[in-house]
What we know:
Layout: E1 2-9, E2 23-25, E3 47-48, E4 51-52, H1 53-60, E5 66-69, E6 93-95, E7 101-103, H2 109-119, E8 122-127, H3 134-145, H4 151-158, E9 169-172, H5 185-197, E10 208-215, H6 219-229, E11 235-242, H7 259-270, H8 272-286, E12 293-301, H9 320-335, E13 340-346, E14 356-359, E15 362-365, H10 367-374, E16 382-384, E17 386-389, E18 392-395, E19 398-401, E20 403-409, E21 415-421, E22 428-435, E23 444-449, E24 469-470, E25 475-477, E26 480-485, E27 489-495
Helix pairs in contact: 3-4, 5-6, 6-8, 7-9, 9-10
The structure holds alpha-L-arabinofuranose.
Amino acid sequence: MANHHLIINTDTPEGTINKNIYGHFSEHLGRCIYEGFWVGEDSEIPNTNGIRNDVTKALKNINIPVLRWPGGCFADEYHWKDGIGPRENRKKMVNTHWGGVVENNHFGTHEFMMLCEMLNTEPYICGNVGSGTVQEMQEWVEYMTFNGESPMTNLRKENGREEPWHLKYFGVGNENWGCGGNMRPEYYSDLYRRYQTYVRNYGDNKIYKIAGGANIDDYHWTEVLMRESGEFMNGLSLHYYTIPGHFWKGKGSATDPRESEWFITMKKAAHIDELITKHSAIMDQYDPEKKVALIVDEWGTWFDVETGTNPGFLYQQNTIRDALVAGLHFHIFHAHHERVQMANIAQTVNVLQAMILTEGENLILTPTYHVFEMYKVHHDARHLPVSISSEDYLFEDDSLPQLSVSASKNEAGEVNISFCNIDPNKEASLNISLRGLKEGISEAYGRVLTASGTNAHNTFENPDNVKPETLKNIKINEEELTVKLPSKSVSIITLR
Ligand code: AHR
């Protein structure tokens, strides 16, 4: 058992953890939108206006603050006017990026906005720069947000929506260095300046404009965008996926039990810290006041698809390893709270690192879902500085810190401390000194998500194999806590 010591200063919070880092991303990809959210009004699966009740119920429980849609790569091929009006008249198209399947456009702007209203979440819409026109983008924003006399307002009303929607977050293209048009940063930067000009604020609706950002460590992209267009944006995105293998030559199985796969996954997940640090350093040069946010609007694990499923559908299982990846990302986002103002995991249902998997009328919650649920307490809480002396998790001739910890304080004065013990073999014994408490600790309550094997996951036959349990044996001694964290676990302790 490894011993660790932690000091938390509870009276000197530094900044706020924006709840939007707990955001989501849902694309017209595989079974995310269709089957995952949308089953249609005539489905036997219980639904409200076509949207599955079980999925919305589960998602309401994790308080999704913001939801990005319709893509992804799909966004730069999406023509929003195909997805409005009577459903039976909507144009069908081929979803070239994702399996070449027919997209019937039954889930469009009205359905997405309805979903956001049901979930009480902020919509984040990604517009089409790659194959769409400036006019198309301008009219979409007008259609959604304008209340005056105009062709788009009239069209919206004809389609049954009298009042405009509130829309804050709008992305001007997606991955324009790749599926969004294979552009050079200089070219995209100019296009960004042009397109965003026509993304108007109508009435009281103020749009927060997000420019398509870099892939992984493409620092040149960030440099050019910030230098040439920084003054025209509120946020700049970054995409980074945790892939244990190789993107083209085999990413690795989602349920591989080998420790080598576990270790490399943890290492690659932790790498986002370096990426954020380096992209932020470039942003600091052009924007020392941190007016432009870094928006990590695609992140998560990306494994090989499950055997027998459509390779274009990106359907993968989700294990305790994914839970650790999620916990590590959140701690890193918390630490970068000054620059990182939003993050969107890819993707909410049935695709990549999903919260929910469905099979017909059945649904399971994944270990990743449980991390989002446990970490709700960090939403919009004040970030507390933490100092940790952690032993290392050693694997072959490499190592990583065994523990990752993050703490916050909410409005009621409760302190929440979350922990990732990434060692798949060793428990961690932890001594925590809490500085600056007015009174001692009166109550400490903990929950833990762990499992017996590194590939433990939930199935439709055994949906509760991995789920949070009470964390036992938390010992309080005035301003000190001692606790034991099981191997491969994500835990949270609330102090009152
Ligand atoms: O999330 C899957 C895909 O990954 C998205 O469509 C794209 O933006 C990224 O390459």
